[in-house]
Amino acid sequence: MKTADLKIYKEKLLILRARLRGDVSAMENAALRKGGDGEGHSMPIHMAELGSDNFEQEFTLSLMETEGDTLAEIENALQRIESGDYGKCDDCGGVIPKMRLNALPFAPLCVKCASAREV
């Protein structure tokens, strides 16, 4: 892959990483405010409110985990840029098309290998 293309993808990945880090941090803060010490949290009057609060906290934690996984994938992609392996499929070693990298800059697999893993 050309150096100019690598710079573009690296910039995209850095922007994504910064945005996700901010999102995860905000979600962590929101989940902590609603949890543990009771600060910033009013006691639910009804059991339904308690269930709703618990669901919301579990949902937030699930989103944080998903975004944490995406952050790890972004870090791996940045490492592949540095090592010269960016744009190569981790499974088959083939070239990952630019169209796929434009849509998902941290993609470690070509479409064929990604589809095979999903089955």
Automatic annotation (TrEMBL):
Pfam families: zf-dskA_traR (PF01258). One of its GO terms (molecular function) is zinc ion binding. Keywords: Metal-binding, Zinc, Zinc-finger. Residues 84-118 form the Zinc finger DksA/TraR C4-type domain. A zinc finger (dksA C4-type) spans 89-113. The keyword Nucleotide-binding does not apply. PROSITE patterns: ZF_DKSA_1, ZF_DKSA_2. Signal peptide: none annotated. This is General stress protein 16O. It comes from Posidoniimonas corsicana. The lineage of its organism: Bacteria, Pseudomonadati, Planctomycetota, Planctomycetia, Pirellulales.
